[in-house]
Amino acid sequence: MKESDLNLVEKILWLRMAQVIINELCKSKSFLVPIHLALGHETLAVAVDKVMKESDKLFLSHRNAHYNLIKMGTLKEELDEYYLKESGIAGGRLGSMNLFNQSKNITYTSNILGNNLPVGCGYALGNKVKNEDGVTFIVTGDGAVEEGSFYESLLFLASHSLPTVIIIEDN
User: Fold this and answer.
1) Which one of 49, 66, 91, 154 is separated from 104 by 20 to 30 angstroms, measured CA to CA?
2) What is the pLDDT of residues 27-77, one digit of tens each?
């Protein structure tokens, strides 16, 4: 196994353990906010983090813990956010389901099912109009496929040839 492969495996395992810790804290009712973990989706989050370039942006759904964790590389700031502390990723103001981090290229997160799809489309169109580089990554769950915004977003992205990757996680 190459060293770079080992590093990816270590990240996947770290991400799983971080979520297990959060899950145990959830069971003990440590948080005042609802948290949607993504156990089993660690590999995808690590892969997206690996392929994203500095100019790429990430648009997430309410199930975003794994992407925020892998982008931060630490558990403390995310836990602080869930505890609603000022030392959290967003200063304790966003909790879990709307957590985003501009400094790590997580541009938008929404707790509304399928809402990040049209927002990501608008962002991708804005990049094209401004002649800016970058791919827009939109991660959604299988439940959003039943929403009209999913199909409208696919049609919009294709008709405008926008550089976008849509990832559907089977939750």
Assistant:
1) 154
2) 999 999 999 999 999 999 999 999 999 999 999 999 999 999 999 999 999
For residue 110, which of 118, 98, 102 has the smallest C-alpha distance? 98
Q: Give, in order, the Cα–Cα distances in Å from 101 to each of 3, 144, 153, 157.
A: 29, 22, 23, 24
Could you tell me which of 111, 159, 110, 105 has the C-alpha nearest to residue 136?
105
C-alpha 132/C-alpha 111 separation (Å) is 28
3-state secondary structure of 101: strand
The gap from C-alpha 157 to its chain's centroid, in whole angstroms, comes to 20
3-class SS string, 8-33: HHHHHHHHHHHHHHHHHHHHCCCCCC
Instruction: Summarize pLDDT for 92-107 with one digit per residue, the tens.
Output: 998 888 999 999 999 9
Q: Give the amino acid at 74.
A: T
Integer Cα distance of 19 and 13 in angstroms: 10
Please report where in the chains the tokens 């009712």 appear, as a residue.
29
